[in-house]
Design a protein that fits this description.
The chain is α+β, with helices and mostly antiparallel strands. The protein contains seven helices and ten strands.
């Protein structure tokens, strides 16, 4: 078993976001550069590693809904603002759940809103692990414009998953909008399939949102349940 999964399993919890992103990175899945800070003092000199503006999010096994708990601050422009944001996040989370164990605050550069996609996985009682793809935001919440395949998948399956959703036209580029990087989405789907196949302890996986650009993509948020 992978050391990250072993630690979470021993502690009877889901993966922390920072652990999920580390695992994704090991499988070659693109995530933003990030840093875990555990005090306001650790924010000093942060811009040398993570350029401003930044996003700050709570890291706690007891806090699943980070925004609901007041555990997220976005578009923070300098160190002074970051120190205040850190204090507010900790105070908000403690009010929301005073039993929450806080591992720190994850910090990464703020990326202006892009085309969003979602990749997920769940264990079906009959078919085993099933991978899901769709456009993010309202497209997945309201329109349920998603596709599924049984893991493992091959390149042909990944391409079909992307092209068969109605929102594929958005990824191709419409009304003068540039096309998005379809190839990297195929690559991420294949790598997620490998990750799940090689780590059967993962019960659920949710990469949402994934920002996809004209060239490249970034997994902005990641959740894994054992």
């Amino acid at each position: 078993m992978h050391r990250i999964l072993q630690k979470a399993k021993e502690e009877k919890r889901s993966l922390l976001e920072i652990e999920a992103k580390e695992l994704l990175r090991e499988y070659g899945i693109p995530v933003p550069n990030y840093k875990l800070v555990r005090s306001k003092d650790q924010i000093r000199g942060l811009s040398e590693e993570i350029p401003f503006p930044i996003v700050m999010k709570i890291v706690s096994p007891q806090i699943i809904h980070k925004s609901e708990s007041g555990g997220v601050k976005i578009n923070i422009k300098d160190e002074q603002e970051a120190r205040l944001a850190y204090q507010e996040i900790i105070e908000n989370v403690k009010r929301y759940n005073h039993h929450a164990r806080v591992a720190g605050v994850i910090v990464y550069s703020f990326i202006p809103k892009q085309t969003e996609v979602i990749i997920g996985m769940m264990k079906d009682p009959h078919f085993g692990p099933v991978i899901m793809f769709g456009l993010g935001g309202i497209y997945v919440e309201v329109l349920k414009d998603i596709s599924f395949r049984i893991i493992p998948i091959k390149e042909k399956d990944a391409r079909e998953m992307i092209t068969e959703i109605k929102g594929f036209e958005i990824l191709k580029g419409i009304r003068g909008e540039p096309s998005r990087d379809i190839q990297i989405l195929e690559d991420i789907l294949i790598k997620v399939s490998h990750l799940v196949e090689e780590n059967p302890e993962i019960k659920e996986l949710d990469l949402n949102p994934i920002f996809v650009f004209e060239k490249g993509a970034q997994v902005i948020d990641a959740r894994m349940i054992l």
